[in-house]
Design goal:
Structural class: alpha+beta
Number of strands: 17
Shape: globular
Distance between the termini: 33 Å
Order of helices and strands: EHHEHHHEHHEEEEHHEHHHHEEEEEEEEE
Strand order of the largest sheet: 1-11-12-13-16-17
Number of helices: 13
Amino acid sequence: MLYGNFSLDLYGTGKEKTTTAELLNAFRQGDSSGENYLTELLVHFARYLMIASSHNCLLPANLQGLWNGSYEPPWQCQYTININTQMNYWFTEKANLSQCHLPVLNLVKLLAENGRATARKLYGARGFCAHHNTNVWGCTAPEGIFDASPCWVMGGAWMCLHLYEHYIYTEDLGFLREAFPIMREALRFFEDYLYELPNGLLVTGPVVSPENTYRSSIGETGALTMGTAMDSAVLRQLAKSCLDSMHVLDIQNEEDENILKNMLDRLPPLMIGEDGRLLEWMEDYEEIEPGHRHISHLYALHPGNEITPEAKDYFEAAKKTLRTRLSHGGGHTGWSRAWLGCFAARLWDGEALRGHVGQLLKKCIQDNLLDVHPPFQIDGNFGIAEAILEGIVQCRTQKVILLPALPEEWKDGSLKGYILQGNTRFDMDWENGKPVRLSLTPLVSKSNIQTSNKTYQLTWKTEVREVVCRAGETIELKWCHPHWD
């Protein structure tokens, strides 16, 4: 039942002619006739893997999901929370797998419990924190080699963003009441931890930007710094999520509200270097490995939501950052190739998105469709599903962008059972790159029986229409360019 609640059809051929392994091999040899089918299969397979490894489970999917075949697996088959665990769950809500997101709450509860002692003992701070790795016991202490993020303190904060993500899709007030105190506690740590610069800005540090290194202007090689682009972007998003939660839950606490707003005002903004790229560190350092697999300074583009086409300077800087990273060999691991696909979707570049899907199929997918880092690591399977879906629909609260990064090869297709933010089912058929039939059905959360209407702003290129719909009722639309019927 859960698997059948969603479908994506790109009208690909070859699905009945041969095996998946044979289709993959043909594609790798230059035969693109099965490409669309393989693309949609990546999404369906990701949904299967998510259901199998995270439905009715106490803890979320780890680096190998449930498919670890070794007594001593790579990276101990743990949770790496400086992107990999988060990437597993980027697509779950929109792919109608909200129930599979729930085990993340259990892991965050463990992190909060253990992270209080870590925050107090290591940093003399309130709240809780977690570093870049954890496990089934919720370990929050630093571990690992120096440049692989042991000094990175953002793991708990980033994981908390998944709690708010679950709420904005489901509108489950009961869940938010349980999640908000944990989110707030994660920020409480940063009230004590952030360092005030002479100019009044509040920065993290000393920290690293996962898992990258730099060369300073005097030739020194290092990883530690004060205030990275990713850290500030995560904290801005979490602070805004807490403020929004207070409003939704009608929490009247002026002191807390002022603390959060003050933090927001004093976090460093995104910065652009002299060459037009986004800065990863507060100083314009030279990267030791310019094709590095982590692209942390583009967090605000994806999974964050600060960098949009409306923020033109940042949008162009993100494009240049990505071009530079790719020109030096970026995307050489499965999960990083999937992240590149997500960036391409958010930059509304359909051909680049198709290229990243193709590179994943050619270089980072085994014949059984499981992703390789290498070695095997499941986040690429989940991350590429997110990239493909973001190319078809992007939802920012009530704004729904249709076909924002659609390659020519996907010009005809059908999407059923997609979930918009605000707990609304969305179905769409498109032809020749244009939406032709759409339907919206607002759903009812068990803990938030809605009586008010919902309004969505549907956008395709320059065409915009506001649609008002009521919970439980389906609104069906046809697109007749340049007007709606």
